[in-house]
Amino acid sequence: MKITGFTVLMLLVANLAMCQPLGSWFKDLESKPLAERTRKIDSLLSVSSRIPIIESDTNVYFIYKGDAGSVFIAGDATGWAPALAMHKIGGTDTWYCMESYEASARLEYKFVINKSEWILDPLNPRKVTGGTGQNSEILMPAYEYPHDIDERDVVPWGTEFDTLIHSKYLSENRAFRIILPASYDKGNKSYPLVFFHDGYDFFKYTAARNVINNMIFERKIQPVIAVFVEPVHRDDEYSGRLQKNYTRFMVNELIPFMDRNYRTEARAESRAQIGISNGGNIALWLVASQPGKTAKAAAMSSNVMKNVGNAFQKGGCRNQMIYLLLGKYDLPPLIPMVRNLNEQLRKHGCQVSYHEYPEGHSWKYWEKYLPDALEYFFPAK
User: Which of 86, 198, 200, 370 is exposed most, by the fewest CB atoms within 10 A?
Assistant: First the structure.
């Protein structure tokens, strides 16, 4: 379903003889007497159903009202650098700027006041929460809402619980969360395994639970057992000095634990790894270096360390399936990494599903396309 009702094609402002594009309206405003400028700005805001104002499906007008020496915008579209300067309308406390984005984009941003104070857009009611806190959000007119994330009364929930095991490789207890499909206790069927790295954050920032339950209920995917693994020393485990130990934990401890205690399809092709950002790197590494243990990896806005590419180059692609998701407005260092990996994997004959959309490095983006990755790996039979 497309978002409707907030595309502003033209705005009627008091005392204008005819409608005009908003860009021209702002330019004309500078020539008006000071008192009239404020009155016209107030009139504009009173007739605008949404701020930022979107005109002609792609032009976005940001507006800020407040005392400031400077106002910049930082967000997905700027690589989160405060690089987009807003223009002050002389004689008023109003700032504005216009940028163009794809009609299907979803973007997050903040205002940076006086080069130091990062704030949400006070005029925009849309806010989203992610790993770095709240951001303001723009949904462009052709953005499609991901209905698989919604909780539905008719959908039976799987059994969900937390547990832990002691890892000799990590020298500590490791917590994780399991979701068994609703059908688990109704027969003797065995199930594929899906491991989520940054597991508890998937619960905190996405509707992964709803996605899995809904897709199984609607027979979009096979019933799966989902395992949400929480990192302790995240970057060291996913791409640094503890990566070898984390790999041994996954391959020699956690996977065997799941196979011993639950009815799993105990083969590499029935085990998937899903991760975001640096969690995508460990998902790729596990599948590149351990194809006999786990053969499917979804890496979303992923870091890609050199050893991942080396492992694929050395071992080639045998049974692996790779899902790559990248945002057009992703973190700048990641964009060439993921694009280059896609080309490399295709040269090696790997099964790759590559996707790039006009969004940024955000949990809402990864949440939206989680159903796509699950359906790629485990389509309903």
Answer: 200
